[in-house]
Design a protein that fits this description.
With 292 residues, the chain is of the alpha/beta class. The chain has helices at 4-15, 31-34, 77-80, 137-141, 167-170, 178-187, 216-225, 229-232, 238-244; strands spanning 40-42, 45-51, 70-75, 84-88, 96-98, 119-126, 134-135, 152-156, 175-176, 191-194, 249-252, 265-271, 280-282, 284-290. Helix content is 21%, strand content 23%. The strands form three sheets. Strands 1-2-14-12-6-8-10-11-5-13 form a ten-stranded mixed beta sheet, covered by helices on one side. It has a two-stranded antiparallel ribbon with strand order 3-4.
Length: 292
């Protein structure tokens, strides 16, 4: 039975304009105003932000054997006058960072990697590649602007334009491999991002490495090139291991508006969640360009 005091408190709440989201229209801001881009000043300088992140959510493209993302609404406006959603998914989807512990035992998890490794000076280099082509050490050596020690390096192959739930994006992509991984580790760059499905060429991943997740790939590659996958790609994810174990942060599925920043030196940051024992994390990957 509700007490008289409880009834009086309830009556007070019901008279409040703040209960149940019933704010009058003149108290609410405009949704259209929220969508306007405000000026951004960083350390006294006006900057432009280029979002290099692919959108995350239900129906997002997934690596060929990942479980689908699940989204359920715990609260929704008709029920609770607020929206609260529960999401379940593999850590390695859309634009994300891999932790060293993802590929090697007893290496740091995502929460242990210093946040400073996820931001700093960098360059977006244009290295156009076609189906199954390899990003070579020579490509990186000749890239413009030149790659320097301590740089964050974002590699633009143009493959992000095929971002989608397709064999073309995930299986036929170009990519880094052993020689490029060795070059980047020797150069001591801070981080590397690629606009492709993984830090390694798809034929150097579980998609084609024995026992392959997609057995048809080897036959298709041999029919097209006359070579065996095992001859051209004898190692499993060498770029992952060479970079991540040497402290080089890796971002996969870079995309978004990356074309706006190609060929430029800038400040780059892609911050992960502080997930304890995390093997990877979604990031918002952004290039910061000073406005002249």
């Amino acid at each position: 039975m509700v007490s008289c005091e409880g009834i009086r408190e309830r009556e007070k709440l019901e008279k409040s304009i703040y209960i149940h989201g019933k704010l009058p229209a003149d108290k609410l801001g405009k949704a259209s105003d929220i969508l306007k881009k405000p000026k951004v000043d960083v350390l006294g300088k006006n900057v432009e932000l280029v979002d290099m992140t692919n959108a995350y959510g239900y129906g997002a493209p997934l690596w060929p054997y990942f479980q689908d993302i699940g989204v359920s609404r715990m609260h929704y406006h008709a029920k609770s006058r607020v929206l609260s959603q529960e999401v379940t998914h593999v850590a390695h989807m859309v634009t994300h960072a891999d932790s060293p512990g993802h590929v090697e035992e007893e290496y740091p998890s995502i929460d242990q990697v210093p946040i400073e490794r996820y931001m700093g000076k960098g360059v977006i280099v244009d290295i156009p590649k076609k189906k199954w082509e390899v990003i070579s050490a020579e490509d990186l050596e000749n890239a413009e602007p030149s790659i320097e020690s301590g740089d964050i390096v974002i590699i633009h192959t143009g493959w992000h334009r095929f971002w989608g739930d397709s064999v073309k994006y995930f299986v036929y992509a170009p990519g880094l491999y052993k020689e490029a991984g060795e070059w980047l580790a020797k150069k001591k760059v801070k981080a590397v991002g690629v606009d492709t499905q993984a830090l390694d060429h798809p034929l150097g991943t579980m998609l084609a490495q024995p026992p392959p997740l997609l057995p048809w790939v080897e036959e298709a590659y041999q029919a097209e090139t006359g070579h065996k996958v095992s001859d051209d790609f004898p190692y499993w994810e060498p770029a992952h291991r060479l970079m991540l174990t040497n402290g080089i942060v890796g971002w996969e599925n870079v995309g978004g508006d990356i074309d706006k920043a190609v060929g430029k030196r800038c400040t780059i940051f892609g911050l992960p969640t502080k997930w304890i024992k995390g093997d990877g994390s979604n990031v918002r990957l952004v290039a910061m360009l000073e406005k002249k």
